[in-house]
């Protein structure tokens, strides 16, 4: 795992937990192939392969953010069921070295989406 500026660390680790994501009572993702991202100062995040996400419920937006540890993220809004939630999903199309495993995988803001994980995440590396 690469160490970054000021001791900040990030690691992407393949997992096998079942992860289900729900928005407005609708299952929008169901995966047993998450990539877990452990990052200094953050709780573990689950990145899901696009094949396990119902992409028909999302539209890309113009929003992009840059993380000095993971790269530039692109965002999508939820547009299912007549309700829109802007920028609820993000992905890194060209992640930085050390976190290549998250390439094109999607992660959800748990302030809008309910992310249910079967079991506890494995103990990650020291971050």
From TrEMBL:
InterPro entries linked: DUF427 (IPR007361), DUF427_sf (IPR038694)
One Pfam assignment: NTP_transf_9
Residues annotated as domain DUF427: 19-110
PANTHER family: CONSERVED PROTEIN (PTHR34310:SF8), DUF427 DOMAIN PROTEIN (AFU_ORTHOLOGUE AFUA_3G02220) (PTHR34310)
Protein's recorded name: DUF427 domain-containing protein
Naturally occurring in which organism (per UniProt): Streptantibioticus rubrisoli
């Amino acid at each position: 795992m690469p160490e970054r500026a000021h001791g900040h660390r990030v690691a992407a680790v393949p997992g096998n937990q079942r992860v289900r994501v729900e928005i407005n009572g609708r299952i929008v993702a169901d995966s047993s192939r998450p990539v877990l991202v452990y990052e200094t100062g953050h709780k573990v995040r689950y990145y899901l392969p696009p094949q396990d996400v119902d992409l028909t419920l999302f539209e890309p937006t113009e929003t992009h953010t840059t993380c000095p540890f993971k790269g530039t993220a692109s965002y999508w809004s939820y547009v299912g069921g007549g309700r829109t939630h802007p920028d609820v999903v993000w992905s890194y199309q060209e992640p930085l070295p050390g976190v290549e495993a998250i390439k094109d995988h999607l992660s959800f803001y748990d302030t809008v989406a309910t992310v249910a994980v079967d079991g506890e995440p494995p103990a990650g590396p020291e971050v």
